[in-house]
Amino acid sequence: MTDLPNMPSFDSLALKPEQRCNKVFNAIIKTLLHNRNQWMTAMQLVEDCRKLDLAQLRGNTPRATIQGAISTGLSTARSLKAEPPIEKYKATYGVCYRISLKLFPKDSEVIALMDMNPPPDNVNQSPPVRKPRPKARKLTYTKKKTQTQAKKKKLPPKKITSANKKITQTNRSTKSRKQLYHYTSESDSEESDSDSDSDGSETDDSDTESSDEQPSRKKIARYHSTSDFTSESESDSSESDISMNTSQQDTNDTLQNEIDDFNSSLCTTNEPSDFDINLSIGPTSFAVAQEIGYSYARFRHQGNMRYPKSNCEDSFCIKDLKNLDGSLLCRLFCLADGHGGPGCSAFLTTQIPECIENMLRQYDYSQLDDQDVQDKFKQDMILLIKHLDDEYLEAKREEYLRWQVHETSAEPVDDGATLVINLFFGEWFININVGDSRTLIGCKTENKWIVEFSSEDHKPYLERLALQIYSNGGVFVDNQDKPIKFDPFPQDRNVRPNLKNARIRLQSADNELGVPYKNNNGIHFSLNVAATCGDLLFKLDPSRPVISCMPDIFFEKLGPFTEYSGNRFMLMSSDGLFDHLYSNKAEIQNQTIATCIGQQLDAGCQLKKIVAHLCNREGDRHLFENTLQEYDDCTCILVLM
Questions:
Q1: Per the record, where are the segments of Basic residues compositional bias (predicted)?
Q2: Helices (DSSP H) in 361-441: which residue ranges?
C-alpha cells in the first residue's frame, strides 16, 4: 500500500452533529481512518474496533452490529440530505466498506494519493465455506434431514419381496449418510488406498480440478462419509452414543496424510528414542508434538500465508532422575508454557530436573502411603518451586537495575510461565500444577473412555485465588480493560461466575525498577491466569505478590508398572490445545479429548500421529473452532500407562 501522509482527524470530516451521535458508527469511521481508509469487510472492522478499544462489540453477532451501524449512518445521511458517509463495494467474499471521499477536506493531499481501485477480487474464486459449529456433547455427526424430506408425507409401507429387497436397500442407503470419525491403522490404510485408487479414479480427478479453482487458506482434515443400511430407529440410537465410530472401513488414512501435508514446517514430533532414558523401565511408550504459534494476515488481499512466531515460548523436558548409584529413581515429564517471552519457561525446564532429583533422594516411594510423608513431600515441593521463582525474579530485578543506570542498552523483558510436572516415582504417579497447562488421565471402562483425573486450571474465577489476588492489590478487568465489580467478602462457593472471563491487572503499577505496566496504546498489561512463575510486574512486593506460584499436588498409587494394557493414558498439554476447542468448559474439554485419543488408540494409530493430530488445530473441524487469525504455541505429551 502506498504510504500516505497523516490522515485527517475525525473532527475534520464533513459530518453533521446528528451523524456523530452513534458511537458504533463513530468507531467505524475512526477504524477506517486508522487503516488509511482502505477497503475493509465487516469482520475486519470488528477485529480492529476491539483492538483499538473504540467500541464494545459484545454479543454473538458483532458483524451484524457493524452492518447495522453502517445502514443507520446511511439512512441518517439520506434524511439530512447529506452525502453518503460510507462507500460500499460488493466482492465475491463479502461487502467492503470505506469512508466516502467527499467527506475529506478538499485541500487534503490524501485524496490525490489514495488508491481509487476497488479491493482485489477474483471472480473465479469463492471464499472457503465454514462448517456450522457442532454441539460439544455429541461426538458423532449426522447430516440432518432437509426441510423437504421432513415435510414429505409418509407413504403406506410397501411389501418388499426378495426380488426387489436389494434395490430398496440401495435406494435407502443414498438417503441416510452419516458423517463419522474414522481412525485406521497403517495396515488398514494401505489396503484402503489400493481400493480407492482402483475404484474411484474418475471421482478423484474431478475433485482435484475443482479444488484447484477455489482458494484454500489451509488444508482441513476430511472425514469420509459411510452408508449404513440401518433403519431409522437404529440411526437414532447411534446418534445418542457419545463415542466416535471407529469402523475400519475407511477408504483413506486421512489422519497421516493431513499431518504430513499441513504440519511439516511448524510441528515437530519426538519419540522415546530421542531422549536419554532407560527404555526397559517405567513408562516407555510416549510421544511429544509441538507446534509453533502463528497468525494469518489481517486483510484478505495480503494473502493466506501463515506467519510463525519468532520463538516458541513452550518448553518441555523428559528425563530419568537417578540415585547416587546410577539406578533409576524417577521418570520426569515437565512442561512450561511461557508468556511474554521464552526465558522463564526455558529456565524452569533446565533447573527443575536437578532440583527434584536432589529432593527425591530423601524419599522412599514405599513410604508415600503415610499421609504425614505426603504432607512433607508437598511442603518440600512448594518450597522448591518458590525457590526457583525467587531466583528468576531476582535475576530480573538485577536486569532492570542495570538497565536503569544505563549499564545495558536493551530493555529487559518481563516474562513468566505456567508449569506442570508429572513424576512416575516407583509405584506412584505425582502431579504438580501451577497455572493453566493441564494434565488428564483417561481410562477405558465398559468400552467407553472416561476422564479418571484432571488437574484444575488456576483461573481468576476460583474463589480460593480471587480473594488473595484482590487483597494483595489486584484488579479484575474484562477484555476491554474495564474493571469488574468484586465483592471482597468470602463466598460459599468454589467459583465466581462474574469472573469467568476476567483478567488480572494491578491497582497501582508505578515502580522504581521501571517495569512497564502499559502498552503503547495506554492499556494495562493483564493476565488471564491466577498462578504463574516469573511475572515480576505482579510480584514487585515479595511479601504480598498479586499472583503466586503455589502449586496443586496430587498423588495416585498405580502399583507395579507393567506394559501398556490398552486401557489408560496420560496427556499433558499447554493451553494452546484446550483454548481452541469448541467448548470452554473444562469438563467437556477433557471428555472430548479423552474420547478422541481413546478412539485413535483403539484403532491402532501410532502415538506420534495422535499428538500431531491434536496439535494440528486447523485439521479437525469437529474438534476445534472455525478459522481464527492467531494460534498459540501448542505442546502435547501423551504417555501410555
A1: 130-157
A2: 371-404
Query: What b/e string do you get for 270-291 counting C-beta neighbours within 10 Å, with b at 16 or more?
Result: bebeeeebeeeebbbebbbbbb
Mean pLDDT of the chain: 77
> What is the C-alpha separation between 128 and 3, in angstroms, rounded?
31
Q: At a CB cut-off of 8 Å and minimum separation 6, what does 143 contact?
A: 177, 178, 179, 225
Angle ∠(226,232,237) on CA atoms, nearest 5: 80
Beta bridge partners of 438: 573
Instruction: Tell me the backbone φ, ψ of residue 12, rounded to 5 degrees.
Output: -80, -10
> To 10 degrees, the CA torsion angle through 27, 31, 33, 37?
-120
pLDDT digits (tens, 9 = 90+) for 243-299: 333 333 343 344 444 444 444 468 888 888 888 888 888 788 899 999 999 888 877
**pTM of the complete model beyond 0.70:** no
Least Cα distance to 382 among 453, 438, 432, 436 occurs for 432
- Sign for the CA dihedral angle at 181, 640, 529, 335 comes to negative
Q: What is the pLDDT of residue 120?
A: 66
Report the share of the chain in percent with pLDDT over 70.
Answer: 73
The C-alpha torsion from 191 through 195 and 201 to 206, rounded to 10°, is -70
At 2, is the pLDDT very low, low, confident or very high (cuts 50, 70, 90)? very low
| Residues belonging to the chain | 641
Query: What is the SS3 assignment for 266?
Result: coil
How far apart CA 209 and CA 205 sit, in angstroms, is 6
The Cα 514–Cα 520 span in angstroms is 15
What's the mean pLDDT in 480-506?
88
